[in-house]
Structure formats: C-alpha cells, structure tokens
C-alpha cells in the first residue's frame, strides 16, 4: 500500500481535474424501417411444411436483392411467424433488405404475384403496416356511395347530322377545333373560350386525339396532361406528368402513356389508366444496359430511346431492350411469363395492327445471319422466320388490316461498296405464312400499303439523290384467265392467284413521299420538305386520272379519316425553327379530287390534326354499301338540297327582311290614299282620277326602218 501511495504521489499533477465521463460514439439509429416489407396472403401451413414454405419464400424474395445480415445475431433478414395455438403459420412474412431501393423494388415486383393457384401476394412497406396496427378496431360501417355523376358523352360528335369531320390546330397561343364537311369553309366548334374567361391556358404545348376520337388531350408541361370530351369539350381528368413532351394512347383508349424525354428521370415514362387516373407503372427513358458504357455522353445523346408499342387489343405493352423485347401484361404491368422475349441483336420490332403478333428483324449477330421473325403472343411461338444475307438495314411495314407484312431490305455486295434493295412480302393470314421476294434494281426511297387493300406503291430511282423518280404499283394478287378444256366452253369468270403482280409504273415524277387515302384507290405523290417544290399529284389508281397541285414548302400531308379531304401544312416546332418561312406557315384543305376548299395562313403554325373515328364497317360491308349506293342517292340529294336551301335562306335573310318592310310600307300608303279618295274627289269637283271610264284610249302605230340591205340574186 505504501508503494502505491508513493507512486500516486509521484504522478501527482499528470492527471486532469475534469471528471472522467466517457461517452461512446454510436452510429445514428435508423428508425424509419424503410428497408423492411411485410408479405401477406401467404399459405397457412402446419409445422411439418414450415421449413419447406420458408425456403420457397426466401428464394423468391432473395431474387430482388440481398437480405440484411447482422453479425452476432441469428436474424438473417427473413422471419415467418408461427402460431403455436393454431398449429400453423399466420400467412405473412417479415423481410429486411440491405437497401431501401431493394425494398421498394420488392413492393413493385411482388405485389399481386401469383404464389400459387389460390394465393396472390400483397406486399406492404413497414410504415404502412405500423399505421394499420394503430387503427382502432370498431364495427364496420358501410360508406355512403357518392352521388352518381354522369360523364359527358365522348362520342356525341359522331351524331352530327351532316356527317362532318373535325380537326384541331395550334397556332400562336391559340388552340381551336373546327368542323369540316368537305365542301364549304370549316366552321369553328370550340376555341377554349371558357378557359380564356377564367384566365387559364387551354393548351401550352401540343395536342393529341385518342385513336377513336373520344378524348382530346392538351399538354401543359407545368401541370401535366388534361383530357377533354363531350359536346363542349368538358374537362374530364388531369394526369400529373411534369415536363410532359408527348403522349400516346392505347388503341382501345383504355390507357395513356406520357413521356418527358428526361434522360435523368427514372420515371420519365408513365403509363396511366384513363378510367381510374391511376399511374400503373413508370419507366426510365432507356432500359437497363441498353446504352454501352464505353460510349461518350455525346454518342449516348445521339441514340434515340426505344419506343413502347401497344398491342391492338390493349393486352400488351412492349419495348425493345438489348437483345430482347420486354412484353408487359396490362394492367398488371408485369413481365409476360416473368421473362423477356430473347431476340439476339434486335434492331426494330412492330406489333400487328389486328393480332397479337410481333415482327422483328435482327442483323448478323454471333455468326448468325440476319433474320426477320414473326412471333405469336402469349405463346411465344415462332410463326415464320426468314434468314437474310449481306443486310445493311431493314424496315418493317404492316398493312392496316394486318394481312401483309412488307420488309424493305437494303443489301450490300461482298465489297460493301454497292447497295441495292429488295422487298420481302409476308402473307400473314395464309397457312405457313409464305414469303415472296421482289427484286428492285433501283434504290427504294418509300414503301406504303393501300389501306384495306392488297396493293402497295414504292418510290424508286437509280440514284437515291435523283430529282426525277419512278412510282410503281404492285398487287399481291393477279387476275388469271381460266384454262380452256377440250369439249367445254371457255368460262367467262376470272380467278385470283396469290402472286405479286406489277400493275403500272409512273415515270419521271418529282415526289419523295406517298400517302394513300384511308378509303383506298386515291394516292398523293408529294414533294415535301424545305428543298422540295411542294408538288402534289392526286392520282386515281382505278381511273388512271391525275391532277397536279402545289403547296409551296409543305412539310405534311394529312388525310381525314373518311378519305374525303386532306390537309397539307407548313408548320414549325413549338421550340423554334423555321421562322424564315413565317409567310408560308398555315394549311390548305383539298378534296380528294384535288379541288382547294380552304386556305389559312398564320405567322406561327405548330400543329394540324384530324379527329380519328372508328371504322364500323368491315371490307364486305363497305363493298355492299358501295354496290347499293344509288339506293341512298335520293336521300343524299334531298339532304344536300335542304342544306343548300338553308344556306340560301341564311344568306338572303337581310334582303327578305328589307323587302317585307317595303311591302308593308307600300300597303300602308295605299290604305291612306284609299281613305282620302272622297276628299280628293271633292277638291276636283267630283272627278275621279282613278276611274278608267274618264279616259279615252288611242292606239298609234309607228314604224321605223332601222336598216335595210339589198341583195342581187342571179
């Protein structure tokens, strides 16, 4: 003890007088539980199957990401409670991931996941489950339903007695919708007057009609997308999509997709349900691993994002990725069969307009030749594959009814110095999907199918930069005379043979685009663009008649849904550009025969869009109506005469009003004169100037020779 006292005395002065209270530095406590999720609606199994069920659930959740792991603890990020009194699990499991991102992903991926035939999983974040635990239990009370509010009739415009079409235009700060009957000047239907009175912009960007014309979408980047419909374009719903750049509707108008083109936004693309307004899912602008990391930022910015495409019946939504096509089932927005469609080297794909069939092409890849594949969904069955060699590029073009698929193939020679074209034509509705190859010696600049028909047209020339080109028409069928057999009379009927047939070629044309009428038969050969002449050639493929018109600097040709009229426009993007053509901005409406109906010019003109309408008749019904057209001729003529009479009466309303006023004044003056007759006779000593017997009538004939001419006849 003495030694310790001496040692303490020797160390006196080396210690601080401050009290010794060490405070350990603990890491911040995370109380958010944002890495935890709770899975419910699991099967309730007895103790004998507990371990097996746990392995299955653990394997499923581990696919999302690694689970949390704590040193010195038995907890491995997974816990599935067991009720000893009931002798079975309680139907839920607690999961903790290493990151909050994996937990969020688990909620998106596993929600409504089909665990087995009788169980679809529900996934909740821990925060939501804690909130439910604090809810007091009480007797359930049936909430009172909200009063029924009738939605506007979005198809009321189809009940127009004049069977008119509609179109929308954007110019300056104005947005307007017009009626068009194909004969007279368009009539304004609505120009946002209600919004102007309220001091609100009806539209600040572009507009978009839905595929059947039921909805009218206006884009307001600060607020999103607003849908309008009904007689007076009433506001139906707003969808939150900040910075929206464009929208795409599904073919059956059940869903809408927005895109803000922001490469840094993980929710750049959103898919909404139109009926509920709910956002079903959001996607980044590019799929995972789509852009090569070795590329520079400038090179990446030059690669356009792969577009989404809808199936014809709204069942599927698909997008191309790297060596795959991701097909999502709608409305669950889950991958079809939980996996993407493998397509090595895919460059482009297209959905059939009338069936759940995907066509895609891929270049030479990993010692495999280039190929075009036609695949059926949801079975993923390959209906047809066509291998191609020495391919530089392909373009897929479906016929509107999905009966034919055309593939424009650009090939190269072995030296890769010379390019040439050929067309691969698929007959999709025939057994085995036969393919015919059409060799074209020239360069093909445009290819287009006739809607509802079997014809197609191509623009071709020896040199792609030629100003003079040829337009050739082909038919997928040819007429054949039946063979005459001995001892039998020659049949007068003709047979259709499924064989590509060249119909005719129009040589020396100045066009770079072709536009078929939706009704078929008529085609527009147009020279569009800043450097083009704006020539428009209206060609009737049946009567072989040609009408040539011109719209200087036109950059768009737009047919109305009926094929009665079309519009040519000179427009500029809203973001700017083309200001040097301000004097040419505007549109011209033409009849299908090339007669100009209306023309309007604007200093800034952004957009012209016809309102689509659903086709109610199929090909046979349309042919039947055309066959019996004379039956309805009197009805149409009577309607036209009544309309002309109405317009005539409207134009002469002012004249008729003045005439009626004059006649009334004249009758009043005659009545006054008649009442003053006795006074007038008294002043004239009984003489009545209106009595015809007081006058003597003499007839005098005066003959005057105006000219004379003598002729000598021998």
What does this structure look like?
This protein is an alpha+beta fold and 714 residues long. It is built from 10 helices and 47 strands. Strands 20, 21, 22, 23 and 24 form a 5-stranded antiparallel β-sheet that branches. Strand 25 and strand 26 form a beta hairpin. The longest helix has 23 residues, at 653-675.
Chain-wise SSE layout:
Elements: H1 2-10, E1 36-40, H2 50-62, E2 78-79, E3 82-83, E4 88-89, E5 92-96, H3 100-110, E6 114-116, E7 119-120, E8 122-125, H4 126-133, E9 165-171, E10 174-180, E11 187-190, H5 193-197, E12 207-209, E13 216-220, E14 224-229, E15 234-239, E16 246-249, E17 255-259, E18 269-273, E19 279-283, H6 297-301, E20 308-310, E21 316-321, E22 324-329, E23 334-335, E24 341-342, E25 348-351, E26 357-362, E27 370-376, E28 381-388, E29 391-398, E30 404-412, E31 419-427, E32 435-440, E33 443-449, E34 455-461, E35 469-475, E36 478-480, E37 495-497, E38 501-509, E39 513-516, E40 522-526, E41 535-540, E42 545-550, E43 556-559, E44 565-570, E45 586-591, E46 596-601, E47 605-610, H7 619-627, H8 633-651, H9 653-675, H10 677-683
Antiparallel strand pairs: 1-5, 1-8, 2-5, 3-4, 6-7, 9-10, 9-47, 10-11, 12-13, 13-14, 14-15, 16-17, 17-18, 18-19, 20-21, 21-22, 22-23, 22-24, 25-26, 26-27, 27-28, 29-30, 30-31, 31-32, 33-34, 34-35, 35-38, 36-37, 39-40, 40-41, 41-42, 43-44, 44-45, 45-46
């Amino acid at each position: 003890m003495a030694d310790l006292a001496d040692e303490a005395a020797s160390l006196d002065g080396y210690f601080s007088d401050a009290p010794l209270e060490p405070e350990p530095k603990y890491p911040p406590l995370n109380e958010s539980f944002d890495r935890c999720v709770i899975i419910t609606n699991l099967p309730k199994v007895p103790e004998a199957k507990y371990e097996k069920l746990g392995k299955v659930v653990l394997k499923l959740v581990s696919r999302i990401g690694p689970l949390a792991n704590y040193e010195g603890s038995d907890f491995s990020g997974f816990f599935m409670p067991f009720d000893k009194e009931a002798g079975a699990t309680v139907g839920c499991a607690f999961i903790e991931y290493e990151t909050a991102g994996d937990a969020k992903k688990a909620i998106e991926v596993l929600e409504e996941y089909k665990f087995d035939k009788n169980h679809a999983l529900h996934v909740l974040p821990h925060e939501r489950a804690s909130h439910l635990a604090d809810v007091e239990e009480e007797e359930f009370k049936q909430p009172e339903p909200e009063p029924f509010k009738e939605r506007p009739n979005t198809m009321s415009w189809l009940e127009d007695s004049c069977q008119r079409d509609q179109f929308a235009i954007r110019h300056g700060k104005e947005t307007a919708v017009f009626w068009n009957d194909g004969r007279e000047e368009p009539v304004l239907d609505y120009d946002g007057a209600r919004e102007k009175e309220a001091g609100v912009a009806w539209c600040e960007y572009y507009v978009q009609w839905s595929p059947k014309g039921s909805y009218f979408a206006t884009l307001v980047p600060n607020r999103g997308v607003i849908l309008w419909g009904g007689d007076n374009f009433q506001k139906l719903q707003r969808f939150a999509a900040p910075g929206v750049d464009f929208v795409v509707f599904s073919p059956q108008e059940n869903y809408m997709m927005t895109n803000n083109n922001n490469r840094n936004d993980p929710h750049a693309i959103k898919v909404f349900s139109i009926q509920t307004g709910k956002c079903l899912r959001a996607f980044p602008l590019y799929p995972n691993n789509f852009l090569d990391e070795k590329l520079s930022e400038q090179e990446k910015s030059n690669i356009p994002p792969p577009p989404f495409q809808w199936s014809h019946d709204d069942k599927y939504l698909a997008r191309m990725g790297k060596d795959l096509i991701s097909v999502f089932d709608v409305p669950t927005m889950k991958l079809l069969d939980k996996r993407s469609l493998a397509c090595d080297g895919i460059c482009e794909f297209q959905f059939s307009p009338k069936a759940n069939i995907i066509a895609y092409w891929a270049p030479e890849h990993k010692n495999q030749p280039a190929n075009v594949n036609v695949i059926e969904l949801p079975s993923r069955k390959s209906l047809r594959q066509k291998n191609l060699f020495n391919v530089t590029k392909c373009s897929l073009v479906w016929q509107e009814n999905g009966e034919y698929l055309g593939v424009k193939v650009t090939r190269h020679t072995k030296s890769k110095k010379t390019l040439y074209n050929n067309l691969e034509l698929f007959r999709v509705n025939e057994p085995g999907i036969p393919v015919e190859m059409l060799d074209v010696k020239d360069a093909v600049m445009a290819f287009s199918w006739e809607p509802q028909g079997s014809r197609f047209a191509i623009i071709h020339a020896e040199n792609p930069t030629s100003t003079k080109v040829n337009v050739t028409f082909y038919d997928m069928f040819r007429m054949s005379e039946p063979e005459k057999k001995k001892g039998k009379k020659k049949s007068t009927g003709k047979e259709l043979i499924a064989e590509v047939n060249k119909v005719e070629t129009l040589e020396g044309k100045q066009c770079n685009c072709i536009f078929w009428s939706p009704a078929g038969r008529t085609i527009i050969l147009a020279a569009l663009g800043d450097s083009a002449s704006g020539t428009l050639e209206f060609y009737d493929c049946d009567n072989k008649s040609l009408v040539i018109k011109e719209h200087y600097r036109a950059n768009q040709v737009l047919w109305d849904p009926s094929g009665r009229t079309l519009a040519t426009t000179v427009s500029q993007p809203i973001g700017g550009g083309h200001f040097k053509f301000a004097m040419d901005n505007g549109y011209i409406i033409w009849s299908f025969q090339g007669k100009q109906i209306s023309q309007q010019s604007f200093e800034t003109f952004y957009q012209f869009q016809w309102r689509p309408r659903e086709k109610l008749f199929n090909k046979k019904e349309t042919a039947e109506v055309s066959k019996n057209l004379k039956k309805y001729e009197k009805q149409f003529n009577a309607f036209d005469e009544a309309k002309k009479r109405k317009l005539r009466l409207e134009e002469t309303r002012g004249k008729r009003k003045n005439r009626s006023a004059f006649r009334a004044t004249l009758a009043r003056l005659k009545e006054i004169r008649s009442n003053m007759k006795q006074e007038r006779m008294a002043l004239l000593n009984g003489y009545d100037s209106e009595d015809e017997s007081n006058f003597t009538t003499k007839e005098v004939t005066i003959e005057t020779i105006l000219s004379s001419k003598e002729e000598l006849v021998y």
